[in-house]
Amino acid sequence: xxxxxxxxxxxxxxxxxxxxxxxxxxxxxxxxxxxxxxxxxxxxxxxxxxxxxxxxxxxxxxxxxxxxxxxxxxxxxxxxxxxxxxxxxxxxxxxxxxxxxxxxxxxxxxxxxxxxxxxxxxxxxxxxxxxxxxxxxxxxxxxxxxxxxxxxxxxxxxxxxxxxxxxxxxxxxxxxxxxxxxxxxxxxxxxxxxxxxxxxxxxxxxxxxxxxxxxxxxxxxxxxxxxxxxxxxxxxxxxxxxxxxxxxxxxxxxxxxxxxxxxxxxxxxxxxxxxxxxxxxxxxxxxxxxxxxxxxxxxxxxxxxxxxxxxxxxxxxxxxxxxxxxxxxxxxxxxxxxxxxxxxxxxxxxxxxxxxxxxxxxxxxxxxxxxxxxxxxxxxxxxxxxxxxxxxxxxxxxxxxxxxxxxxxxxxxxxxxxxxxxxxxxxxxxxxxxxxxxxxxxxxxxxxxxxxxxxxxxxxxxxxxxxxxxxxxxxxxxxxxxxxxxxxxxxxxxxxxxxxxxxxxxxxxxxxxxxxxxxxxxxxxxxxxxxxxxxxxxxxxxxxxxxxxxxxxxxxxxxxxxxxxxxxxxxxxxxxxxxxxxxxxxxxxxxxxxxxxxxxxxxxxxxxxxxxxxxxxxxxxxxxxxxxxxxxxxxxxxxxxxxxxxxxxxxxxxxxxxxxxxxxxxxxxx
Length: 670
Known about the structure:
Elements: H1 8-27, H2 33-48, E1 64-67, H3 74-83, H4 90-94, H5 124-143, E2 155-160, H6 161-165, H7 167-179, E3 184-190, E4 193-194, E5 197-198, H8 207-214, E6 217-221, H9 228-240, E7 246-251, H10 274-283, H11 295-301, H12 303-325, H13 327-338, E8 359-360, H14 361-372, E9 379-383, H15 387-390, E10 409-411, H16 416-427, E11 434-440, H17 448-456, E12 462-466, H18 484-489, E13 495-497, H19 502-517, E14 522-525, E15 530-531, H20 539-543, E16 547-550, E17 558-562, H21 567-579, E18 584-588, H22 592-596, H23 600-606, E19 614-617, H24 626-629, E20 634-636, H25 647-653, H26 658-669
Parallel strand pairs: 1-2, 2-3, 3-7, 6-7, 9-10, 9-11, 11-12, 12-14, 13-14, 17-18, 17-19, 19-20
Antiparallel strand pairs: 4-5, 8-15, 16-18
C-alpha cells in the first residue's frame, strides 16, 4: 500500500508515532509504546477539540493539556512540533533526552513552552489537573458575568495504568468527584501493560467502577486504535456533562503497529531496535526517512496556528468589552495574571514586642493569613482535615465547594499527597493564584513528592506546617518530626522557614508571598506550643535568613544560634552568661537558604569566622548544623525519635532547657 492511499487523519497519526519512534531510537532511550498507542486519541483531542495558540503558549484562556503518563513525553513533543510551537523544532526532536535539550525525558514545564506541568512521577499529572480545573472554576465563579465569560477553558489529561495505580491519583480524583469539576476531562490510555508486563499481575480492579464511585462521569471507547469517531463522540459527551468530571477509558494497544513488540512490556520503556523499526515502517506503510514529516501532515496540523490566533483575538475582544463594562474586575484580573502584588500589601503584617502575649506560632500564622486574605484575594487554600489544628481558615471567605467555587477555604480531607499536587496545579495555572496547603510537619513525609515537585517545577505554593517538633508532645514519636526539617532543607529551591515568634511569622509570610509570585515554593514550620515574643526580632531579619538578636560589646566569645521555639532558650542562656561576664551573641536563624543567599560580607557580619565557639539549638537532628557551628562548635539537638509525654516534658527530657544550653555553652567556653 502506498503512502498516498492513507487518509489525512492516518497520515497525521502516523507522523506522531514515527516522530516518537525515531526520537527514541536515536537516543537509544525512552518510551515509544505509549505514543504509538495513544496517538489517535491525542490527535483527535488536539485537532478537533482543544483551544490553544501555538504562537502564544501562555494565552490565558487556552485549554490546559496534561500528559500525566509523562514517560510517553514524545507524544507531547510531537504534538507541539506538528502544531507549530516555536519551542519544539525538528532539531529538538532529534535531540530527545540529550544535554541542554528542550525535549527532556519527561515533560518539564520550565524547559519546554507548551508543557503546563512537570509530570515525572506517575499520578502527579492527573492530580495537578485537578488543581488546574479548580483554578479555572474559582476564577470563572469570581470574574465571569451573566453577559461576559472571560474564564472558560477545559483541563484535558491523558493518564495511564501506572497513574491509576498510584495513590496520589486516587486522592485527587476522589476530591475532584466530590467537587463536581465538570471541565476536567481525563482520557485513560487503557493498554493493560506496565514495565513488569501485563497489568493482570497486579492491577485487576474495575477502574471505571472506581471512578463512578468517585462521582465521575465515565465513558468507554472500546477501540482506541482506529475508531476516531468514537473518541470524538466521547469527548463531545464529556463536555456536555457540566456537573461531573469525566473519565474516558480508551482501550488501546501499546506499541501499535510494531509487528513483534506491540502489546508487550518490551515496547513500554525501550527503543524498538533497528529491525523492528523497519518492520513497523513496513507494517504501517510509512515510506519516509527518520524525522521526515509529510507536508500534508504539517499543512493540516499547523492550521492550529490560525485557529489559535483567531481564538485569542476573539478572547481579547471579549476582554476589552468586559473591561469597559466591569473596569474594577478587569483591573483585578489583570493584576492576578501579571503576577503583581498590591502596593503596600505587606504593611498589614503585624509586628510584636516583648510585652505582647506569647502565642503558638501557628496562631500567629492564622493572624497573618487573615490579615493578608482581604487584600490578596488570590490567596486560596486549606488543610488536610486539620483546619482547627493548623489554624488555616480565612474567616469570612466561605468554603470552596460545588456551587460555591468563588469561595477560598479548601477542605482537602485526609489527602496530604493529593493536596500537595493539587496546590501545585493551582499555582501553575498561570492566573496568579497563591495556593496554600497545610498539615502537621511530620506529614510532609506523605506529600514529599509533591513538595519536591513544587520546587522543581517552580510552582509558587505555600506549605503551612504546624506541630513542628517534639513539643508536639502526647501524640508521641509518630507525630514528632525530628529529621523532617533537615530533609526538607535539602530540597533545592524550597525555602524552609522556622519562625521564633509573631514578628518572625510575619517575616515568613512576607517571604512566602513574594516567592509565590516569583514561582517558587516556601515551607513554613510553626509551633504547637506558646512562645514569647522578642523585641529584637524583625521582619527584615527573617528575609535575610539569619540575623543578630542579642549582641555584646566587641567580638563575642560564643555565638548561640537558635530557631523557632528554641530561640528563647538561647536568649535566656545568653542573659545568664552575660551576667557572668561572658561575651555572647545570639543569632536567630529561621532559614538556612535565605541566609546562604546573602553576600559574604553580611554572612561574615552575623557569623564571623574568627568566632569558632558556636552552639546551635534546635529541636531536631544535628544533621546539617555542623556547617554553621564548625569543628569548634556543638549542637543541642535530638538524634533519636521522640516520646509520648506532655510537650514540655519531652523538651526537658531531651535536653531542650536553659540549663542544658548553659552546660554545653560553658563546656565550649572552657
